[in-house]
Amino acid sequence: DGGITQSPKYLFRKEGQNVTLSCEQNLNHDAMYWYRQDPGQGLRLIYYSQIVNDFQKGDIAEGYSVSREKKESFPLTVTSAQKNPTAFYLCASSIWQGRDQPQHFGDGTRLSIL
Amino acid sequence: DAKTTQPPSMDCAEGRAANLPCNHSTISGNEYVYWYRQIHSQGPQYIIHGLKNNETNEMASLIITEDRKSSTLILPHATLRDTAVYYCIVKGFQGAQKLVFGQGTRLTINP
Q: Among A45, A62, B3, B111, which is 20 to 30 Å from B94 by CA?
């Protein structure tokens, strides 16, 4: 089945540690996105990528980094500079061409601080 | 992107049609209406979207008023598994293409 796979489902970070969240899609989508969701709140865009080897900052990129070396993969690194990393992280993908292509989401990674 | 207004919560009996309203009075001509839902601790699930015509797929129907200032998502035969938070989102096709999720409607399907 085609879809978006995020791993791990739960992740714990120690103070001063960088952690990387995985996002893989087999939908042949051009664009991929990372969002952050805090309890009781909506999603906020961290980074997005329209094509391989290109990505753009979203609204809350500070303390995060990404790479897009393959079309299928868009890993997110939460660096030690992100002082409040505890949140639910969601990866999405979509076809970029066409004005109305919906984004499809993975099941998320829940990150907590030890 | 235009702002949307949804009731915070709704109840519906199992087997009945669930009609979820959304107001988007400031929508512009090139903005689409999208509906997603999110079950607790899962990622949002895309349901349906439309521009001006009514749309139907295997999950739901979307009715958009002629002036496009409001819409209704219809789940024709609600089941317990349809209990979720439903989000109505209006999005154009310029810029970052981010989805802006508001507070949504918490739909509870009762047996």
A: A62
Q: Which one, of B8, B21, B34, B17, lies nearest residue B105 by Cα?
A: B8
Option in B93, B101, B103 nearest A43 (CB): B101
- C-alpha separations of A111 from A35, A78, A85, B16, B70 in Å: 13, 10, 7, 38, 37
One DSSP character per residue, A81-103 reads T-S---EEEEEEEE--SSTTPPP
pLDDT tier for residue B40 given thresholds of 50, 70 and 90: confident
Structure tokens at A111: 């990150």
Report pLDDT for A20: 96
pLDDT, residue B49, reads: 95
**Better pLDDT: A83 or B72:** B72
Distance between CA atoms of B109 and B12, rounded to whole angstroms?
A: 5
Length of chain B in terms of residues written: 111
- Tell me the two tokens of residue B56: 């139907």
Please identify which residue in the block is written with the tokens 């009075």.
B25
Looking at CA atoms only, how far is residue A100 from chain B in angstroms? 7
> Which of A:47-86 have CB within 8 Å of B?
48, 56, 58-59
Write the pLDDT tens digit of every residue in A87-99.
Answer: 999 999 998 766 6
